[in-house]
Specification:
Layout lengths: L2 H5 L2 H23 L3 H4 L4 H18 L1 H10 L4 H23 L5 H7 L3 H25 L9 H19 L4 H14 L1
Helix pairs in contact: 2-4, 2-5, 2-6, 5-6, 5-8, 6-8, 8-9, 9-10
């Protein structure tokens, strides 16, 4: 199949957007972890700020680029969901591998259930629900009701989970639960 024929498939642009966000995340992570104090001491703080900003924006707001781009070009919701989950899951796997230098494999895998990752997944779900609701409202026929209740419930559930994982008492309630399970397991 030629590149032109492939680019006419609806899921193509969804995967291209997902790959672009993933590459941005990976590049920002690599550049953030460079030894800036040794390479260019004057650029340490500005470089760290810029690259951590790009890293976090790609992880947190990547779905707001990927989902609408894919969905409005005709990609199926499951393809858009997989493309949106690509970056946060890759980031989590990268972090799990990083902590295996200090902890056992089982403890490192458990680390993958931390509140930042779960909060990122919940916020990803909220964004996908929002964009699916927008898609359904914009694609409805005149006089037809937009069936957006399901996506709106996903938005609300995602935001509630973000609150529980990251903001409820500054995340300490989830952290205490997380630590209690850790103590029981290890």
């Amino acid at each position: 199949m030629t590149a032109i024929a492939w680019s006419k498939r609806p899921q193509f642009w969804c995967w291209i957007a997902g790959a672009a966000v993933l590459v941005m995340m990976a590049a920002a992570k690599v550049f953030y972890n460079l030894p800036w104090p040794e390479l260019a001491p004057a650029f340490h703080q500005p470089a760290a700020f810029i690259f951590v900003l790009l890293l976090n924006v790609s992880i947190v707001f990547g779905p707001s680029v990927i989902y609408p781009l894919g969905r409005f070009r005709g990609a199926a919701p499951r393809i858009c969901i997989m493309a949106c989950l690509l970056t946060p899951v890759a980031w989590n796997i990268w972090e799990i591998i990083r902590v295996t230098a200090y902890f056992s494999v089982a403890e490192s895998l458990y680390y993958g259930l931390n509140s930042l990752f779960l909060g990122a997944l919940a916020f990803t779900a909220a964004q996908m629900g929002f964009w699916e609701a927008v898609y359904r409202v914009r694609r409805k026929e005149p006089g037809e009701k937009a069936r957006a209740a399901g996506p709106i419930l996903i938005v609300l559930a995602g935001l509630v989970l973000v609150y529980v994982f990251c903001f409820w008492a500054m995340g300490q309630h989830w952290f205490y639960f997380y630590q209690a399970v850790y103590k029981a397991l290890f």
